[in-house]
């Protein structure tokens, strides 16, 4: 199944929610009055795209409606998908397209960091890259074994230390190993932590700083966020970005959530490109992000004139 079919299936609940609210708004007629614009903004906010993205989208559509003398709400809705796509931050290609890079995966507990590292390892190996995994999640007992299992499935090497070890030391070992083996994509799994825990966030900052100082290739920090958490994901992203200066975001669990709009909220408000999306638990359930397909899957098409 291609990206669009997969994401379209996954986001059907988000799309149904949006459609239902839009239909209520359109029932009063297609006039481009203040009630329509306010209603559109509210519908977007209720779809979890965030207040900032919703306001940008409506402002730009209003501007286009005036410039192009659009006749009615349906003409505006024809432009909505493109406008949503344009509201995503751009520039994520470099993270996985560098000749060599270290990518650290961070986020709160259970968002899918380990799973995402495993999926990316497989994808990158299949594309001919020399991948090395680092298990800096030394906190959770099963995390090391879980990543080892993913390494086995993806057929890549992994650096680990026993549970309770200093995560920064694991990163050191991993970088040394990458240098000696010539690995060109190093994926580091870190322990999940609440963005509200100052101690744990400081620990993560230390790990990232150690890697940035020691590494001889570009270092990227990527937030793994779970779409099912909705608006809470935005607050998490703010805190992780403040602490680590993130480079991008992977949005997981987009299969079957009504809160898929959160991907846009995080990307737009924090200017973070969406690098990949997770649409299931399997090794192949990771897709490259395509803003236009995503917008189409989130909103659907609106042709009620017929
Ligand atoms: N449906 C679905 N489940 C996912 C996806 N990504 C991960 N999961 C599931 O989410 C659960 C948590 O995934 P992990 O990879 O262990 O999460 P983590 O962030 O490493 O967890 P901690 O190390 O405890 O913070 C597992 O059951 C995964 O199978 C996805 O895209 N869709």
From TrEMBL:
It catalyses: GTP + H2O = GDP + phosphate + H(+). Residues 99-276 form the AAA+ ATPase domain. Keywords: Cell membrane, Cytoplasm, GTP-binding, Hydrolase, Membrane, Nucleotide-binding, Receptor. It comes from the Bacteria. Its EC number is 3.6.5.4. Its main location: membrane. It is an enzyme of class 3 (hydrolase). Signal peptide: none annotated. Residues 7-88 form the Signal recognition particle SRP54 helical bundle domain. It is a peripheral membrane protein. Residues 100-300 form the SRP54-type proteins GTP-binding domain. It holds the Pfam family SRP54. SUPFAM superfamilies: Domain of the SRP/SRP receptor G-proteins (SSF47364), P-loop containing nucleoside triphosphate hydrolases (SSF52540). Gene3D superfamilies: P-loop containing nucleotide triphosphate hydrolases, Signal recognition particle SRP54, nucleotide-binding domain. GTP binds at residues 107-114, 189-193, 252-255. It is found in: Cell membrane; Cytoplasm. Belongs to the GTP-binding SRP family. FtsY subfamily. HAMAP family: FtsY. Part of the signal recognition particle protein translocation system, which is composed of SRP and FtsY. Involved in targeting and insertion of nascent membrane proteins into the cytoplasmic membrane. Acts as a receptor for the complex formed by the signal recognition particle (SRP) and the ribosome-nascent chain (RNC). This is Signal recognition particle receptor FtsY. It comes from Raoultibacter massiliensis. The gene is ftsY.
């Amino acid at each position: 199944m291609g990206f669009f079919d997969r994401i379209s299936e996954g986001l059907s609940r988000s799309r149904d929610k949006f459609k239902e609210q839009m239909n209520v708004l359109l029932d009063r007629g297609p006039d481009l009055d203040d009630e329509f614009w306010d209603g559109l903004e509210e519908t977007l906010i209720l779809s979890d795209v965030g207040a900032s993205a919703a306001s940008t989208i409506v402002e730009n559509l209003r501007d286009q409606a005036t410039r192009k003398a659009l006749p009615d709400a349906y003409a505006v809705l024809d432009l909505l998908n493109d406008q949503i796509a344009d509201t995503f931050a751009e520039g994520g290609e470099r993270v996985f397209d560098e000749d060599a890079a270290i990518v650290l995966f961070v986020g709160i507990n259970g968002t899918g960091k380990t799973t995402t590292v495993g999926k990316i390892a497989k994808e990158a190996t299949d594309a001919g890259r020399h991948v090395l995994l680092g298990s800096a999640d030394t906190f959770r007992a099963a995390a090391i074994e879980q990543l080892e299992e993913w390494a086995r499935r993806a057929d890549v090497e992994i650096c680990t230390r026993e549970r309770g070890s200093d995560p920064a030391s694991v990163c050191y070992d991993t970088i040394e190993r990458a240098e000696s083996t010539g690995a060109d994509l190093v994926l580091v799994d870190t322990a999940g932590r609440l963005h509200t825990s100052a101690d744990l966030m400081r620990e993560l900052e230390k790990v990232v700083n150690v890697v940035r100082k020691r590494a001889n290739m570009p270092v990227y920090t990527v937030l793994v966020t779970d779409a099912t958490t909705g608006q809470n994901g935005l607050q998490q992203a703010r805190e992780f970005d403040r602490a680590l200066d993130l480079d991008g975001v992977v949005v997981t669990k987009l299969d079957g959530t009504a809160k898929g709009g959160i991907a846009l909220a995080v990307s737009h408000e924090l200017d973070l490109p969406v690098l990949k999306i997770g649409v299931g638990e399997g090794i192949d359930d990771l897709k490259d992000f395509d803003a236009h397909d995503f917008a189409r899957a989130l909103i659907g098409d609106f042709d009620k004139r017929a």
